[in-house]
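Response to reviewer comment R2.3. The reviewers asked that we include at least one raw input/output pair. We reproduce the pair for Rieske domain-containing protein here without editing.
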Amino acid sequence: MTLLRVARQAEVGEGQKVIKEAHGRKFLLVRVHGTVYCTDAHCFHMGTSLAGGDIEDSGSHACIVCPAHRYRVSSSKAD
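Raw output as returned:
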């Protein structure tokens, strides 16, 4: 897996969603219980922006719920 720097962790507040662009891609970052998670900014199923989606804490990671069709998109911990 290739790591990309897309933002500083300090730019993402608790419960906040931040969209950043890096290397021609848009990423959505969220902070849940102090941990920053990152995923693509758009749902891979329908291409809908995930910025308007709800954040769910699954315990081991954060999920973004797609506002278009309620699909849960898993995110990865951003180190």
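The chain is about 0% helix and 40% strand. The chain has a mean pLDDT of 87. Further pairs are available on request from the corresponding author.
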